[in-house]
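Sample intake sheet
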Amino acid sequence: MVHHLTRDQARRIIVRAQLLDGARPGDVVEVAEQLGYTKIDPTAVIAPCEHTVLWSRIGWSYEPGQLAKAVEIDRQLFEFDGAFRPMSLLPLMKPAMRRWPERENTRQWLEANTRFRADVLARLRAEGPLEAGAIDDTAQLPRKPDGWSGSNVVTMLECLLRQGEVAVAGRHGRHRRWDLAERVYPLDLPEYDEEEAQSLWDARRLQAAGLAKQRSPWTPVGTAGEEARVEGSAWKFRVDPDAIVALEEEAAGRVAILNPYDGMLFDRPRLEQVYEFTYVLEQFKPKPQRRHGYFAHPILLGDRFVGMLDAEVDRTGDTLKIAAVHEFLPLEEEEREMVDAEIRELAEWLGVDPAFSP
């Protein structure tokens, strides 16, 4: 069966899958289960990515402590590869952990550091959880495989994380605290073989995406879901069947201010195909080449990207300094009021006052 979607329907499917429609989720775990991951990034021009992503879904009732509780106390989320993920995904990742690493130079580095590996595990077993800086570097071969940065201890911990032997137990500020995986992850998780795990993981990715190109390096979903075509696009898509059913429900739109590292923005080709939105992160561009600002946040209104918010928090003055709201097309008065209201909501959540530039 092939589903034929209008561009508006395709946009609504994605917005709803990303929890950016009018029906806000209730808590951190609900967001994690739907999205699959929340990127961790310290860039805090407004707020760190993981917190902005959750605020943009949950709204004013979200507090950063809720994320820490879900990760460190309730163990409903876990940290892996620069993102917070729901614990329900861990069983689907285990087969890949068992065959990691695939690169020969990483295997050779681990084999040459057998004693170092044992030292790190023994230290965690005796004293964990620990920050990397508290663990002695006893590396026999002091080099960094695959171009990773950081100390030998951090490199070894990252390797052991990918093999499922250690886990991030929590954070002290931005510093990770490490422990044995058996003391962090639940012990009664289901087991899957590699083929079944991959199929289930593809389905979870499609659930989070709603709609994805059939062969996409950005949103790999395999053959999950059903085939779809979108008006105006020559691409073959895969669509979540549940998202098709949900199209019959009344759509409720709202304004969402998105962190530049939000998963909604990750698949740039899909943004162009479905939303006709070419998103460029200008963080690493020279200042004279920036159009919208160093770390401008895209503004979603309903199912359209309507502009970019160039703002930063000034903690010395307790203000959200708004340099500009760049409108792609002139907004109607009611739309501009909605955008301004969301900016004020953002400032209130941050505990500062909005200060619009003259």
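Comment: The chain is about 35% helix and 20% strand. Residues 2-86+195-356 form one domain.
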